[in-house]
What does this fold into?
Amino acid sequence: MNALSISNLKKTYNNGFEALKGIDLEVKPGDFFALLGPNGAGKSTTIGIISSLVNQSSGSVSIFGHDLKTERSLAKSCLGLVPQEVNFNQFDTVKSIVFNQAGYYGTPRKLALQRTEHCLKQMDLWDKRDTISRRLSGGMKRRVMIARAMVHAPRLLILDEPTAGVDIEIRRSMWKMMEEVNQQGTTIILTTHYLEEAESLCRNIAIIDQGRIVENTDMASLLARLHVDHFVLDLAEPLAQAPVIAGYQIERIADKVLDVAVPKEIGLNYLFNQLSEKNIKVVSLKNKSNRLEQLFMSLIDTKSAGNK
Amino acid sequence: MNYSIAFRTIVTKEIFRFVRIWPQTLLPPAITTALYFLIFGKLIGGRIGEINGATYMDYIVPGIILMSVISHSYANVVSSFYSTKFQRNIEELLVAPVPNWVILSGYVSGGIIRGLLVGTVVASISLLFSDIEVKNPYVALSIMILTATLFSLAGFINAVLAESFDDISIIPNFILTPLSYLGGVFYSVKMLPDIWQSISLGNPILYMINAFRYGLIGVTDVDIQLAFIMTIVFILVLTLLSLFLLYKGIGIKN
It folds into this structure.
């Protein structure tokens, strides 16, 4: 049984805009799944339909085998949603936001209090439990939404751009938290504009563009399609201009920093040999971590060109 | 799925909301109606004499109580549900396995409770000015609950359809208040010329106020049975309309 099965899902808005043109998607239980796409591609509409915030035009959605139309309550009880924008009552306390959500899911009071405490502690918000939510920082508000989504122990958690607009430190701590939640058995679907985030967290990926799924595979297979890796080299001595080495595209991005595009069929050994011959000493090397971005752009560009 | 917990959660949240802001929700009706009783009942009413065998003070007490019930049950639901829409925390309910009838009954119950609470506050204030002996308590209580239910439902529909804060003040200011004042709060429709009597009989609030007045002091201008039937029919119609709006997601879903 899949955590999520979507079949031929279509959505046309009242203004005639066709947001989804018949998408099919399956997410396995326990997966950490990335749903990516440019703005307006149909990600939010898809998530809106899964979470009952948007009415579908046709097609079917089932969550852990429960059809969203015929077994609505059961399907909904398996799902937790962390939306893109803050959507809790800004005048409520942190604790009441999370506690009330447990009540909406029919959780008895005693258990709801226990789960509220657990989730707030997990999100490092227990000290803020009696704070009026509008007084929280942006990162804390996002964590409140995650605690709220987790309070009924959902089997499928959808995180719609959870780290948008938060600083690096909070983003890293949220990644850690998401990994922990996934390791505890919760299936996670993540949408994000930070492709580095999807690359480091997710095992499987679907890319949606113009209302259609243009790619649906595992992350490793997708990244293996890359023919070129980008590396940043830190040099011991400054260079006036980038060296020229056949087969590589080298760009000088600072006095002592080079950006090198390395074709996979040539590899790194030849590059280092050539640099040594030119008396260029490399102090350190790092992957540029934009591999998924390159693939993403090439997939979107290819499909867009094909649709024209 | 235990829907009673979801229902209790919504109702408790609603009660906490209006109790937390009691200077805006419970205090103003106490002050306003005290002034009504003092000015219209005591100062002016003393010179008016009796209406249908009741002193003017006794005559206006039921109408003022019910007018407060109407405006506050309506205001509670319209402001609370529209704020929920505006801040998008309605999504908390839409995502959860809460059926539409639970959402509706939860918010309407909040409106009824506030309406009855304000009604009790105003009735308590009226005891300072009047010594009414309740003639038909069951009639009075049942029409008060039905009226609070009806206007809570109306407030809910207004909130669902509203697209701005202006939209939630238009109906209370331009429809509800005039209909309440023209519903025989301060006078008997029998005092009006024939044409205005006929027009007044098209005002549903007139029936509720008179039924409540009958419950409290045993005086009415209209048929009590008709008042109950009319109120119940309106409640059924507005309930069905509210559930239809929720089912279609009008005003709350894309």
